[in-house]
Inverse folding.
């Protein structure tokens, strides 16, 4: 019987401000935390002995895992020192050959099927921006070298962070990072097979969540819970959770998923690639497209929300606009230029007629009426 | 207190009973025992906790059995006083939750007739009485026994030569679970959740005859129908999952249970009750008493209605003149004192309302109307999510009375609770963990919040803690302040802010270390105190919630730092069903 260790202890600080109350693995895409997709892929492969390493905001993760119908062991990594240290925390639970997977990347079942038979192997993937990852140099199908986050990447092949190991790996864990252990194994003459993943997706920066979200929305199942007015026009795959009400003349074009106990007003338009969490309120005449809203978001009437990620509990008054554009923003020590409307942390409050333009607003930011906000805004700022 | 469980059906009874007793352990945990009917009655009983692994030694046979986990009332907790109790012949076994008030008299009579008693418990008389009436029919023997008993009981009885359990209740809780060719009986529904979602709440005076796959309920000698109800609690809620303690899990469930309680709303009849009354009396015990006091401060200041709060235990014997709506607040719905008080209010023609977490519990049948809190099963002995859910229910009453002005505040309150759960308390915990005494002070609605903070601290960490109204400190307790007695002060904006701040300075002048809870961004307060714990700057109603949750975290982490048994503090049980 194969075991699996899912690493879900890290915060994912490049996704700040969205990681204030939950680690990256718990960020919802298409209304399910990323870690659930990983667990699904394992279960589909018959791997049921799953250990999850938790750390940052562990209560949030544990609470969620308890609700899943899967026998999951939880171990705690007290300080987030690195992936190898996390793996050491799981050691007492490991008795067999096992897989290691990051809990905060999407992976499909087919990829797992490719690696689960191997003893020492890693899944690799091609990525257009390899410098955010460990770049893998392969020779004859075996890993020759891993270069962590290089400025100039020699290839576009990157490590997915998914490995197949035997318990022997524990004797190579001398530093706090798994790639160092791999290097030590290679130096000791062990061979590590590099296997291309079938489908693997990572979200490094907040705006990447939008791509991941629209990708995951392809897989949702149609369902209409709650109360949907007869005049509502639906097209494509639409999921509406229990206890949600959708008012008259609202138009929903799937793929769209809406959580439980939401209140979608009349005459709203929800365009494709939208995920809406639980207890969200959209007031009438609001337009939403290509966006991800977490739970407890309230949006006033006559708003236009495009290409936006809203953290839990944002309260935006009427006539809020998110306006997609691209400008230079410094995130995680790198200057980036990416087109998106807005990324709002938890509990952002905006007065009527606020325009967000390519803006990342921190947690608990308050914006007074009629402002156009651009670029990076620190946590707790009041924009007057 | 005490929990009982019974099983009859197609499975081996022992594991079902042990599992059930583990779920009921919050009702008492000083001894436990089981009895099954196989070819003969087999009994296993032991002082100690069922979860300490002792239960593994129980290897009893049979598909019919009863079990008990005890919170000692009569006789010290030892192997002999543990239930089940047997008759002289060893062919009848009973478990019992409640108190037989006339057991001395019955015991004397029975001893006079030659019965030998082994234990010091009140329960044993039931076994001997059944023995006297037993002529091959357990049901009629139990029926003949019950009229002799005065007091409260939920009883399960088995006999050697029959595959049946006879269950009876009067003033102690008992529910039946109806499975597929199997029947369960238990003090509450938590042991049943794993097997069935169909339950029957027995009424006082009911006697049920349980055989594999069949049950018949009698009341006053006549067969009666009791509705089978579906429960919506799920078994996941009774599991600790990956959390270190139930209490921590339940602390983290508070945003959701608060939200669910608010969302469930208030039905029209209750609304009418609230609107029509011109005075409210609340009766409650323990933590519920604190939520009731908070309600008093909030309701009197925000909707100008006179509110009186009484402790259940006092109210029963010293009933004040009563007028207007009477509200009983009890998480379990089985708190004996609160129920007795509610009956007094009813006898005086007051409209009565119950606020409880347990659908079908005794208090819901006594009261005219019920407002349910949606906390789900709470296993940790220290009340946490039931406390905030109670506040949710009480704040709804406030909101109804104020015609919905707090709709917005209440519907967003759970976010502020989520927020405070991220709060770091390490420094404050270090201070409390090395203290012998901790004082909690507040004013207005924060006075009962500080009382609750003190209660949490003492019940799980065993650090002596007292809650005071800040102004009262100078009338005595000030004499106790030293550099080794931390004071936890709640100081939020409002009419008492300035006087509270000067109180804090007075304490600082006596060198007492001060941990202050104030709103985020209050730098002035942060400067004068030793440790500042910010709570979100929101409406008063929400501050009450967040301050309470911050104090729960403080108590929890202090208890962990002192390595206490957080979920099962010594000498305590969750629901106090004896007076």
């Amino acid at each position: 019987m194969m075991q699996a260790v899912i690493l879900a202890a890290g915060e994912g600080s490049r996704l700040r401000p969205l990681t204030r109350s939950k680690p990256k693995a718990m960020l919802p895409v298409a209304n399910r935390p990323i870690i659930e997709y990983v667990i699904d892929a394992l279960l589909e492969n018959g791997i049921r002995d799953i250990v999850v390493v938790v750390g940052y905001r562990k209560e949030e993760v544990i609470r969620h895992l308890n609700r899943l119908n899967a026998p999951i062991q939880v171990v705690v990594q007290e300080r987030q020192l690195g992936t190898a240290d996390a793996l050491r925390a799981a050691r007492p639970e490991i008795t067999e050959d096992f897989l290691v997977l990051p809990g905060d990347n999407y992976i499909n079942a087919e990829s797992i099927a490719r690696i689960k038979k191997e003893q020492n192997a890693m899944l690799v993937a091609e990525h257009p921006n390899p410098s955010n990852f460990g770049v893998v140099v392969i020779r004859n199908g075996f890993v020759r070298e891993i270069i962590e986050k290089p400025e100039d990447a020699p290839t576009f092949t990157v490590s997915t962070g998914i490995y197949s190991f035997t318990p022997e790996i524990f004797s190579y864990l001398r530093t706090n990072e798994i790639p160092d252990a791999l290097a030590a194994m290679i130096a000791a003459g062990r061979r590590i097979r590099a296997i291309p993943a079938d489908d693997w997706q990572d979200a490094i920066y907040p705006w990447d969540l939008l791509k991941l979200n629209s990708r995951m929305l392809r897989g949702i199942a149609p369902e209409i819970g709650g109360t949907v007015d007869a005049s509502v026009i639906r097209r494509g795959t639409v999921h509406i959770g229990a206890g949600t009400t959708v008012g008259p003349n609202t138009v929903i074009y799937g793929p769209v998923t809406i959580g439980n106990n939401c209140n979608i007003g009349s005459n709203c338009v929800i365009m494709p690639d939208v995920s809406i969490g639980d207890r969200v309120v959209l007031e009438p005449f609001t337009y939403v497209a290509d966006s991800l809203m977490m739970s407890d978001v309230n949006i006033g009437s006559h708003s236009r929300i495009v290409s936006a990620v809203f953290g839990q509990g944002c309260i935006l008054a009427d006539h809020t606009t998110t306006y997609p554009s691209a400008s230079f923003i410094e995130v995680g020590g790198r200057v980036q230029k990416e087109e998106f409307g807005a990324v709002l942390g938890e509990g952002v409050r905006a007065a009527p007629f606020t325009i967000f333009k390519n803006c990342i607003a921190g947690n608990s930011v308050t914006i007074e009426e009629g402002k156009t906000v651009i670029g990076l805004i620190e946590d707790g700022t009041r924009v007057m | 207190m005490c929990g009982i469980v019974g099983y009859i059906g197609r499975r081996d009874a022992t594991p079902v009973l042990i599992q059930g007793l583990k779920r009921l352990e919050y009702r008492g945990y000083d001894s436990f025992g089981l009895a099954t009917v196989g070819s003969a009655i087999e009994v296993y009983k032991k002082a100690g906790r069922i979860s300490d692994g002792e239960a593994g030694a129980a290897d009893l046979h049979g598909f019919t059995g009863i079990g008990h986990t005890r919170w000692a009332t009569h006789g010290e907790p030892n192997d002999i006083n543990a239930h089940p109790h047997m008759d002289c012949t060893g062919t009848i076994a009973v478990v019992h939750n409640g108190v037989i008030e006339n057991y001395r008299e019955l015991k004397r009579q029975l001893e006079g007739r030659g019965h030998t008693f082994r234990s010091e418990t009140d329960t044993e008389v039931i076994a001997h009485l059944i023995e006297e009436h037993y002529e091959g029919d357990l049901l009629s023997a139990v029926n003949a026994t019950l009229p002799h008993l005065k007091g409260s009981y939920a009883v399960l009885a088995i006999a050697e030569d029959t595959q049946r359990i006879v269950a009876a209740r009067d003033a102690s809780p008992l529910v039946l679970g109806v499975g597929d060719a199997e029947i369960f009986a238990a003090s509450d529904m938590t042991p049943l959740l794993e097997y069935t979602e169909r339950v029957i709440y027995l009424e006082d005076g009911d006697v049920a005859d349980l055989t594999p796959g069949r049950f018949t309920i009698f009341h006053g000698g006549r067969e009666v129908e009791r509705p089978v109800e579906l429960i919506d609690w799920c078994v996941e809620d009774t599991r600790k999952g990956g959390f270190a303690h139930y209490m921590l899990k339940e602390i983290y469930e508070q945003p959701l249970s608060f939200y669910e309680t608010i969302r469930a709303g208030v039905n029209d009849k209750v609304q009418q009750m609230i609107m029509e009354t011109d005075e409210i009396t609340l009766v409650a015990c323990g933590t519920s008493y604190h939520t009731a006091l908070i309600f008093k401060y909030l309701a009197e200041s925000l909707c100008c209605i006179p509110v009186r709060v009484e402790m259940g235990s006092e109210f029963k014997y010293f009933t004040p003149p009563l007028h207007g709506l009477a509200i009983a607040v009890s998480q379990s719905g089985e708190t004996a004192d609160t129920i007795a008080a509610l009956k007094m209010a009813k006898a005086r023609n007051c409209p009565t309302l119950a606020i409880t977490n347990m659908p079908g519990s005794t208090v819901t049948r006594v009261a005219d109307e019920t407002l349910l809190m949606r906390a789900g099963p709470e296993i940790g002995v220290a009340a946490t999510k039931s406390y905030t859910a109670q506040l949710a229910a009480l704040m709804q009453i406030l909101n109804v009375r104020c015609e919905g002005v707090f709709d917005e505040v209440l519907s967003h309150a759970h976010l502020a609770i989520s927020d405070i759960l991220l709060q770091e308390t390490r420094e404050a915990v270090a201070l409390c963990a090395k203290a012998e005494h901790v004082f909690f002070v507040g004013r207005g609605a924060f006075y009962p919040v500080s009382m609750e903070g003190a209660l949490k601290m003492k019940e799980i960490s065993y650090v002596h803690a007292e809650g005071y109204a800040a102004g009262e400190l100078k009338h005595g307790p000030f004499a106790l302040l030293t550099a080794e007695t931390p004071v936890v002060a709640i100081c939020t904006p409002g009419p008492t802010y300035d006087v509270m701040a000067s109180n804090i300075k007075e304490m600082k002048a006596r060198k007492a270390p001060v941990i202050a809870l104030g709103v985020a961004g209050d730098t002035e307060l942060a400067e004068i105190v030793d440790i500042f714990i910010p709570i979100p700057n929101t409406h008063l109603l929400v501050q009450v919630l967040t301050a309470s949750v911050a104090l729960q975290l403080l108590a929890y982490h202090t208890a962990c730092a002192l390595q206490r048994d957080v979920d099962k503090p010594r000498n305590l049980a969750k629901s106090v069903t004896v007076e």
